[in-house]
Amino acid sequence: MIYCCQKTCLLCAGVDWMYQNFIPGQYPSCFRGDPPVLSYIWKKRVGESFSPPRIMHSHDEISELLLVIEGSANYTVGESQYIIQEGDIVAIGAGVLHDEDARLTADTTMVAVGLRQVRLIGLPDGALVDAATCPVLSLGDSFPVFRSVLDTIHSLLNDNGEQYAETCQFLMAGLVSLFVRLYQHNAESDAPSGKGEQFVGRIRQYIEAHYSETISLPSVSRALHINPYYLAHIFKEHTGYSPMQYVIRLRIGKAQGLLMYTDYPITQIAGMVGYDNSSHFNAMFTKYIGMSPGKYRKKFRSSKGGK
């Protein structure tokens, strides 16, 4: 409790006591240089508008924070799959593969922000958490704060993005700082990587380098000199997917990006992601996304006002 200097001052007239907190003149920053730059924010609810799953993909220069507002989902970050639920926030570093499973509960609502120029003390550029730790944090009592700030940013940018851009940047910088402090206080490091996790890392690297080629479980096994049965077992144990399911999700995720952000013909995209038969590509894309590649591209562009 800190008492006012004068009970006769206008601010404290008739007040017996007041709480007052001061910000120190100097304090440690979690940022190396300037805070991250907010690139985008999206919010979606399953079953509303254009909201098919965005499967296996990464962003080379953008880090993401994803907050679950309602419901639950299976989410893969890097080499592991997590069940995320209301009040959880997921930290995805730049260049880290992540995958949104289509098996979401009917009321699942999520909001995510994309951040550029993430440079945190003690971490590589683009990283939001240490690679050895779990990327999912349960916010607990801080959940309403994160939800309120992100809702405010989303609303301000919807109303007048140009006018409120600076405001939103400062709000986001404060939220990232709060996330870092909460994570440092609450997150527990995973156990040190064992032999199985090292194998999984090698398998992922190989698949990500060769997904656009003809690839199979035997070919991966031969290339890495790992027994195919052990390879399949250990990979699914750590990721939740068989090696070939992982290949398919990676291919479809890459195709989603090409459909959204390029004008390549669908037949060319099929070849670029490893399908020499466009009909098979169309069938697999529809199976995993719930609509054909052509319809997906059309819906995405109509949702962006034809851009």
In short:
This protein is of the alpha+beta class. 42% of the residues lie in helices and 16% in strands. Helix 5 packs across helix 8 (293-303).
Question: Can you give keywords for this protein?
Answer:
42% helix, sequence-specific DNA binding, 307 residues, 8 helices, 8 strands, alpha+beta, three-stranded antiparallel sheet, Arc Repressor Mutant, subunit A, Jelly Rolls, 2 domains, five-stranded antiparallel sheet, transcription
Could you describe the 3D structure shown?
The protein is of the alpha+beta class and 307 residues long. The chain contains eight helices and eight strands. The protein folds into two domains: 37-186, Jelly Rolls (Sandwich); 195-303, Orthogonal Bundle (Arc Repressor Mutant, subunit A). The chain has helices at residues 143-186, 195-210, 217-224, 228-239, 243-261, 266-272, 278-289, 293-303, and strands at residues 37-45, 62-70, 72-77, 80-85, 88-92, 98-100, 109-116, 136-138. This is HTH araC/xylS-type domain-containing protein.
Strand content: 15-25%
Sequence stretches where pLDDT stays below 50 over 5 or more residues: 188-193
Radius of gyration: 23 Å
Q: Give the helix level as a range of percent.
A: 40-55%
Number of individual domains = 2
Report the mean per-residue pLDDT as an integer.
Answer: 84
- Biggest beta-sheet profile: 5 strands, antiparallel
**Which sequence of SSEs, written as H and E, runs from N to C?**
EEEEEEEEHHHHHHHH
Report the structural category.
Answer: alpha+beta
- Compute the number of helices: 8
| CATH fold category name of the largest domain | Jelly Rolls
Second CATH tier, the architecture of the largest domain: Sandwich
What top-tier CATH class of the largest domain fits best? Mainly Beta
Shape descriptor reads globular
Strand order of the largest sheet: 1-7-2-5-8
Number of DSSP strands? 8
User: What's the CATH superfamily of the largest domain, by name?
Assistant: Jelly Rolls
Distance between the termini: 56 Å
Oligomeric organization of the protein chains = single chain
